[in-house]
Specification:
The complex is a heterotrimer of chains A (about 140), B (about 375) and C (about 650).
Chain A: E1 11-16, H1 20-29, E2 38-43, H2 51-60, E3 64-69, H3 80-98, E4 105-109, H4 115-132
Parallel strand pairs in A: 1-2, 1-3, 3-4
Helix pairs in contact in A: 1-4
Chain B: E1 7-12, H1 15-20, H2 26-36, E2 42-50, E3 53-59, H3 62-66, E4 88-92, H4 94-105, E5 114-119, H5 127-138, E6 145-151, E7 154-159, E8 164-168, H6 169-174, H7 181-185, E9 196-199, E10 212-216, H8 219-230, E11 234-238, H9 241-265, H10 271-283, H11 290-294, H12 305-308, H13 320-328, H14 338-342, H15 349-363
Parallel strand pairs in B: 2-4, 4-5, 5-9
Antiparallel strand pairs in B: 1-10, 1-11, 2-3, 6-7, 7-8, 9-10
Chain C: H1 3-11, E1 17-22, H2 34-41, E2 47-53, H3 59-71, E3 76-81, H4 84-97, E4 105-109, H5 111-115, H6 122-142, E5 150-152, E6 156-160, H7 164-175, E7 179-183, E8 198-199, E9 204-205, H8 206-219, E10 223-226, E11 229-237, E12 240-247, H9 262-266, E13 270-272, H10 274-277, E14 282-284, E15 286-287, E16 299-300, H11 310-314, E17 327-333, E18 335-338, E19 343-344, E20 361-363, H12 364-371, E21 392-399, H13 414-428, E22 433-438, H14 448-457, E23 461-464, E24 469-472, E25 478-484, E26 489-495, E27 497-502, E28 504-505, H15 511-517, E29 544-546, H16 556-576, E30 578-580, E31 586-588, E32 608-610, E33 616-618, H17 628-632, E34 638-640, H18 645-655
Parallel strand pairs in C: 1-2, 1-3, 3-4, 6-7, 6-18, 7-10, 18-29, 20-27, 21-22, 21-27, 22-23
Antiparallel strand pairs in C: 5-30, 8-9, 11-12, 12-17, 13-14, 15-16, 19-28, 24-25, 25-26, 31-34, 32-33
Helix pairs in contact in C: 2-6, 3-4, 6-18, 7-8, 7-16, 12-13, 13-14
The chains are: A alpha/beta (about 140), B alpha/beta (about 375), C alpha/beta (about 650).
Bound molecules: flavin-adenine dinucleotide (FAD) (2 copies), iron/sulfur cluster (SF4) (2 copies) and FE2/S2 (inorganic) cluster (FES).
The site of FE2/S2 (inorganic) cluster has 13 residues of chain A, from helix 3.
């Protein structure tokens, strides 16, 4: 394992266009500093986040994957996030069974105004992942 | 009159069918009557080749149906997909029926058009291994076998010369023979998910060996029986309390056995050992796609999410193909063992799948293949 | 490469991607070495050019993009700058002008998501920016042209809430010639302004300027007022909203009633009038909201009515109808303006400054009713404990505002409201001692600072500080222990009455309509605009606008401006008669679809259905492009355009690299 202090994990964050992506924007507008660990991928609704995308992110080398969207009741497509929550139950159980640490997968609802919450989330997750080190699914030679 | 919930003992009125039948030939007679009277357009049955081989056929020939008597314990084929897009009656082990119900949830089978005659099932045996077992454990030339039976926990083989030999299943399974692995932990022995649940448990006294016990599970089952009685193909009488009790008891024992085995087989490995285990087990995969094709629950065509995002060129530590399949079957896998059967490199796919499916199905409180009105949770819209 | 990528690439023409990296002055360039990013990007496959701009969104920047499209024959354009939430439409329009399909444009956010959050880690920020752009390039290569379609717009508007903001919005839309439904939850239009006495900074009588406006709204032939009504359901999308409105039973036939008050006189049931008079004074079970109400009609409060029948007997017009039931209307409108207003902060639960414990601590809203000539005391200011006119009155500012324990925001109007009320007392009872206890006096905008100076000239005492402790003596006088932080003097100030200058909060009761409409809620609880500067009255939802207190605390002039702004923004759609729908929708690959139908219940908009042959049918006009169904589809037959699996996975892949960048 690399020296965890130098090592910067790679985290893939799937964000819905309306809320959590806006939350990431608001974090920027508020200049809430974050480690450069996370790459945001925008989709229209958290309901579009396919567990297959999450798997793929792990297989490509993600040290953690974040599934994010609007707060329940706030989804811009009525209840896409409720469907996300259901699919997430599968993911959670599957990832656990696979033997990946629970610190590598998160579901979080963040509104477009919650910039600080977004930044705190990234800070927390990055710290946790740094503690457990690179993902065992990360292919050789990937940074 | 027959009612839903009735437990009956009956047999085929045609002596020849009754004699050839695994129990009382009732299943064959019921299927034949359904075809004859136009309840269905065709019937799915097994066409025997020899003791270890049979092929499913879809037929509208009553004679062919009548010729299909007998239980093939070493033919672990799944019949569900033969019912797709047809108006059929079919016999089926509990796992056949489960698969039919899962297919119906995916718009592939219309249950209103499908009559399901369930067969109790203590398990099936892999054909190749069975022949080896006959030689090694029974000292019988597989070619000499004319019949088989399961009684009191023993597997009995009858040979041409009129002899028979019995060995306890436990002993066989300890030696690595006997039932397929998934059958050993299967916990549905009486197909209560079918229209008519038939078997030999509970057939006692004089009738033992020459009658079939059947439970009428629903309106369709009732129709099947009434139709066959009307057609003069079967005779039935209510089962005695004793018969019912015996059936329950044997079933109870078998289910318990299944549970114990499941606990043993699926003892949770330590966290850090799981990923290496799965990776190693799946590393041998040669991408033939056989498991996908064989799965009786999956309704996808040749292309599906598991294949579309998988490529031999990936340098992934696990294959997208298997991860996506594991996900998509996690709520719906019925543990029928078809995928393991077909895998040319002997990957225990069913066992791997079930180690994901058991916790997911437990967590989401979903039993696939049991209730046609209950949707697989992955396709649910709201959290219950 | 996945199979799908292979297929797409086979068919595609040669890819020519132009990447434009924006420095955004120093906003991006301050943390990201944009030239290094451009150098790196130009080495990637399919990238024809990579350019750095000072401001890509400026005219010059946009011209450069257009020129490059033409000169270099670009067929994909990528801009790495700020957020697509504000700038995507701008760049889409830009590439479209140069003849490129707007959906062949890819946006990469290297400001909010990079330079601004890694301000002091230049190396990390630059590396991350390279990777973000690399992800964008991979995605751009897989983008496909899409067509957005035009939908006709129903040329009617719905305005929800008829406070001063909603009234203004309705009038402006009506004056522009479009029909407006004005739905008001209360029995009369007017909102909180109708309760106020005078209004700053001119101290003209509130109802005297609002009343005529209310009448005007009522007379406007294009406005249909639906009072005592609430929106129950909203379906559809910009241009075509289907709205269900509930008209609550008034138990009085609004067409027969003339508001004559005969029934009110006879009604034997009397309760405190909370809704309008803040519990000072009473109303009957049957009542007319207030003398200037529009519509000027009675209603019956069934929760206290004893069914004695006195009102029926009293009413000569036979307007009382005890059997009335709630009724419903179905409306079709093209746009929706939301002006549901605010509540004043409630100091009761925390007993702020003794409120709720001591009789003579009241709120400014109660004070407005007390000093109002048509209020319950006919304008006589008396204190609650003994109904005697107080000689020493103190105002406490920022109650429920600028306080980590309640709301951290400034409610903005309350300094001015207290200055106003202090002046009114001095005018009415010149010998009253008036104190204002404040943290800062906030008086921006025209004539407001002058208004403050005027108060100072009127011998009103300003104490910078707020009471640390409030007690009551045997005379029910209030003792406020307060330090003036300007003089560092601590004193026990004895007051006959203390008025809490309460701020504004977003009412719990507006949460329902917010959720029906799916408008976002900001951290302060009020509804959220699309952009705090550029789109202050838009929401992220096309065709839905917010104004006035709904969007956060503000005073009347600001509220009215927003009402007009909403009207202008909304009427654009009505005037054009058409709106563009999202080009991003769902499509099915019929070769792959097996017709399992699991996708059908996934769609919240009923855009999917199985036809009689068991084939999947997509009703494009209903699809809003969330892509949820594509996740359920096990076969991968359903693909959301612009967010196809291969497009998303290409981005995922490029997060990671085998060599250092
Ligand atoms: C593998 C297997 C295990 C069984 N285990 C038990 C048991 O433990 N306890 C018990 O009470 N009963 C068991 N049965 C059921 C029993 O053997 C009889 O099938 C049942 O009693 C009906 O008898 P019958 O004479 O009416 O059937 P028949 O008239 O003989 O008709 C049998 C029907 O079963 C079909 N069939 C034969 N083999 C298979 C197969 N492998 N898969 C699917 N369909 C098949 C045939 O096509 C035919 O239609 C088992 C059956 C099978 C196939
Ligand atoms: C004590 C006090 C003194 C003030 N003095 C001044 C002053 O002197 N000068 C000044 O400029 N400003 C003053 N203000 C501020 C002023 O009251 C507001 O700026 C103004 O009233 C805001 O108007 P509005 O239409 O946005 O909201 P509101 O007046 O709150 O109107 C909202 C309307 O929407 C209705 N509604 C709510 N929910 C629904 C629903 N679900 N469906 C339908 N209708 C609904 C409500 O019944 C109400 O009629 C004062 C405020 C206070 C508290
Ligand atoms: S993307 Fe699918 S689920 Fe979403 S609106 Fe369109 S059809 Fe419905
Ligand atoms: S889920 Fe996919 S395969 Fe099934 S019907 Fe819908 S589009 Fe077709
Ligand atoms: S739009 Fe954000 S979760 Fe659906």
């Amino acid at each position: 394992m690399a020296d965890n202090n130098d090592w910067e994990p790679k985290i893939v964050a799937f964000c819905c266009n309306w809320c959590s992506y806006g939350g990431a924007d608001t974090a920027g507008m508020g200049r809430f500093q974050q480690p450069a660990s996370t790459r945001v991928i925008r989709v229209m609704c958290s309901g579009r986040i396919d567990p297959l995308h999450v798997y793929n992110a792990f297989l490509e080398g993600a040290d953690a994957v974040l599934v994010t969207g609007c707060h329940l009741g706030d989804c811009h497509y009525v209840n896409g996030n409720e469907k996300t929550e259901l699919k997430y139950q599968f993911l959670e159980e599957m990832v656990k069974q696979l033997g990946l640490e629970p610190e590598r997968l998160y579901l979080n609802w963040i509104s477009a105004s919650e910039g600080e919450r977004f930044a705190n989330f990234i800070n927390d997750v990055t710290a946790k992942v740094k503690e457990i080190g690179p993902s065992p699914l990360k292919p050789e030679g990937v940074s | 009159m027959v009612e839903v919930g009735d437990k009956l003992v009956g047999y085929a009125t045609d002596d020849e069918v009754r004699k050839r039948g695994a129990s009382g030939g009732l299943v064959t007679a019921v299927l034949a009557a359904a075809l004859e009277k136009g309840m269905v357009e065709s019937v799915v049955v097994l066409k025997h080749i020899d003791e270890y081989e049979a092929v499913p056929i879809i037929t509208d020939d009553v004679e062919e149906v009548l010729a299909s008597t007998g239980s093939m314990h070493s033919v672990p084929v799944n019949l569900a997909k033969y019912a797709v897009d047809r108006k059929v009656a079919m016999p089926g082990k509990p796992c056949d029926i489960k698969a039919v119900i899962e297919q119906s949830k995916r718009n592939m089978i219309d249950l209103d058009n499908t009559y399901l005659v369930g067969l109790n099932c203590g398990g099936t045996m892999p054909p190749v291994l069975t022949k080896q077992m006959l030689i090694e454990m029974y000292d019988i030339d597989p070619e000499d076998v004319v019949g088989e039976d399961i009684e009191k926990g023993k597997l009995i083989y009858r040979t041409k010369d009129g002899n028979e030999k019995a060995i306890s299943i436990e002993e066989l399974e300890e030696a690595g023979f006997g039932r397929r692995k998934n059958c050993q932990y299967c916990q549905l022995k009486i197909p209560t998910n079918s229209d008519l649940a038939c078997g030999n448990w509970g057939v006692i006294g004089d009738l033992a060996g020459s009658a079939t016990f059947c439970e009428v599970m629903n309106e369709k089952g009732k129709k099947l029986i009434e139709n066959a009685v009307e057609a003069g193909r079967i005779e039935v009488a209510p089962a005695s309390d004793k018969a019912i009790a015996i059936r329950e008891k044997v079933n109870g024992v078998m289910v318990k056995m299944g549970e114990t085995t499941q606990e043993k087989v699926f003892t949770q490995m330590p966290d850090e050992e799981r990923l290496p285990y799965y990776r190693e087990a799946l590393a041998d995969c040669i991408d033939c796609g056989g498991c996908k094709l064989a799965c009786p629950v999956c309704s996808c065509g040749d292309d599906a999410k598991c294949t579309l995002f998988h490529s031999l060129g990936d340098n992934y530590k696990m294959s997208m193909f298997h991860l996506v399949r594991l996900l998509h079957l996690s709520d719906s896998c019925i543990g029928c063992g078809q995928c393991t059967d077909v895998c040319p490199v002997d990957i225990p796919i069913t066992r791997i799948q079930m180690s994901f499916s058991i916790p997911v199905q437990t967590k989401l409180n979903y039993k696939p293949g049991m209730n046609a009105d209950e949707k697989p949770p992955f396709f649910e819209v709201m959290i219950k | 490469m996945t199979k799908q990528e292979a297929i797409t690439n086979e068919e595609a023409e040669e890819l020519r991607i132009g990447a434009f990296i924006c420095e955004c002055g120093v906003n991006i360039a301050g943390a990201v070495d944009c030239n290094a990013v451009a150098d790196y990007i130009s080495t990637l496959p399919n990238v024809t050019t990579a350019v750095v701009n000072k401001y890509t969104c400026s005219d010059a920047g946009q011209e450069e993009i257009k020129k490059a499209i033409k000169d270099l024959d670009l067929n994909r354009v990528l801009v790495a700058s700020c957020t697509p939430k504000t700038h995507e439409p701008i760049f889409r329009a830009c590439v479209e002008e140069a003849g490129l399909n707007p959906y062949l444009f890819e946006f990469v956010n290297i400001r909010e998501h990079c330079s601004w959050i890694h301000m002091w880690e230049k190396e990390d920020a630059t590396k991350k920016a390279k990777e973000l752009v690399r992800m964008g390039v991979a995605r751009a290569a897989l983008l496909e042209p899409l067509q957005s379609s035009e939908v006709p717009v129903t040329n009617k508007a719905l305005v929800i809430g008829a406070g001063v903001t909603g009234m203004q919005a309705a009038m402006d839309i009506g004056d522009m010639g479009f029909q407006v439904y004005l739905v008001e939850a209360g029995p009369s239009i007017g909102g909180k302004m109708a309760q106020l006495d005078k209004t700053f900074p001119t101290n003209d009588c509130s109802i005297c300027i609002l009343g005529p406006k209310m009448v005007e709204v009522n007379r406007n032939p294009n406005i249909e007022i639906m009072s005592y009504s609430e929106v129950e359901e909203v379906d559809g999308y910009v241009g075509n909203f289907d709205v269900k409105v509930k008209h609550k039973a008034r138990y009085v036939d609004i067409n027969l009633c003339s508001g004559c008050n005969s029934c009110v006189e006879k009604c034997p049931v009397e309760v405190p009038y909370w809704e309008f008079n803040e519990g000072i004074g009473t109303r009957k079970a049957v009542y007319v909201p207030f003398p200037q109400a529009v519509p000027l009609r009675a209603l019956i409060d069934k929760s206290i009515c004893i069914d004695c029948g006195a009102c029926s007997k009293a009413c000569e017009r036979g307007a009382i109808n005890m059997d009335q039931e709630d009724t419903f209307s179905e409306l079709e409108v093209g746009v929706i303006v939301v002006c549901v207003g605010y509540d004043v902060y409630d100091p009761e639960p925390n007993h702020d400054f003794g409120f709720g414990l001591y009789d003579n601590v009241i709120t400014t809203m109660e004070f407005e009713r007390l000093i109002n000539a048509s209020g319950p005391t006919m304008g006589k200011v008396v204190r609650p404990s003994d109904v005697v006119q107080p000689k020493r009155i103190g105002f406490v500012q920022c109650v429920g505002s600028r306080d980590v324990n309640s709301n951290i925001y400034c409610s903005s109007f309350c300094c001015m409201a207290s200055l106003k009320n202090a002046q009114l007392i001095k005018e009415k009872y010149p010998d009253t001692e008036v104190y204002i206890m404040y943290m800062d006096m906030r008086t921006p905008f025209r004539m407001y600072e002058e208004f403050y100076n005027r108060a100072r000239d009127m011998d009103i005492h300003f104490i910078r500080g707020r009471p640390a402790e409030v007690t009551e003596n045997e005379d029910k006088n209030i003792i406020a222990r307060i330090e003036d932080t300007l003089t560092n003097k601590i004193e026990n100030l004895e007051l006959d009455m203390m008025v809490l200058s309460v701020g504004a909060v977003s009412p719990e009761s507006t949460e329902k309509i917010r959720q029906i409409l799916k408008v976002s809620r900001a951290a302060d609880g009020f509804m959220m605009e699309a952009h705090p500067k550029l789109k202050p009255v838009d929401t992220t939802l096309d065709g839905i606008f917010i104004g006035g207190m709904t969007q956060g605390p503000k005073d009347i002039p600001y509220s009215i401006s927003q009402g007009s702004a909403c009207a202008a923004r909304a009427t654009r759609f009505l005037a054009q008669g058409k709106a563009l729908t999202e080009g991003i929708t769902i499509a099915v690959d019929e070769d792959i679809c097996v017709g399992c139908g699991v996708c059908v219940p996934m769609c919240p908009f009923q855009a999917l259905k199985m036809d009689d042959d068991g084939k999947l049918e997509i009703i494009k006009a209903l699809c809003k492009g969330c892509g949820t169904c594509a996740v359920a589809c096990p076969s991968g037959a359903l693909q959301q355009s612009h967010y196809k699996n291969n497009q998303i996975l290409a981005q995922v892949k490029e997060v990671f690299a085998y060599e250092e960048v």
